[in-house]
Amino acid sequence: MENGGRKALAELVRGTCIFDVIPQPLQEFYSDVYDLAHYESRILTFNYHCSSPEHARLFQMQVLPQKDGGLAIVNSVLVEHAHNVPGVFPSATDYEDPRGLITMCSHCRRTRRISHHETWDWVPAYLSRLPLTVSHGLCGVCRNYFYQSDAGTSRRQTVPSIEGELF
Fold this sequence. Notes:
By secondary structure, the chain is α+β, with helices and mostly antiparallel strands. It has one domain. About 25% of the residues lie in helices and about 25% in strands. Strands 1-2-3 form a three-stranded antiparallel beta sheet. Strand 5 and strand 6 (about 120) form a beta hairpin. The longest helix has 17 residues, at about 25-40.
């Protein structure tokens, strides 16, 4: 709720295709996870960050195949604590590209630094007041964790279970 998640509450999305509420950069990942759980009748577990401007949070998601062919999704808080990073609004020159776009990771919500494109920073102020010109992408850590194996292929093709911690 601290991240503006009211629109994703069950009573508001029940009967809606789940992919209508999952951001585009994450759809392939969740499609692969749901397919793997469904077709192999496996429980899949992975950890993800869902922090707010005030709190750092690590959650665990379990995708549980059901006898009727559906899936049950269980999200549990593993860690929650106050941030130790100040919520100061950063300088636009640090994160805005020449078009005024700010790129945030769809998984961990870190923000890409303009001067070092491989560096993504945790900027709590952007969670409390999302910039109007935000673009979503995937930071290198999330891309490698969720989408790559050692051979550089899709994680789904080489790893039968998705487990572990994002950071």
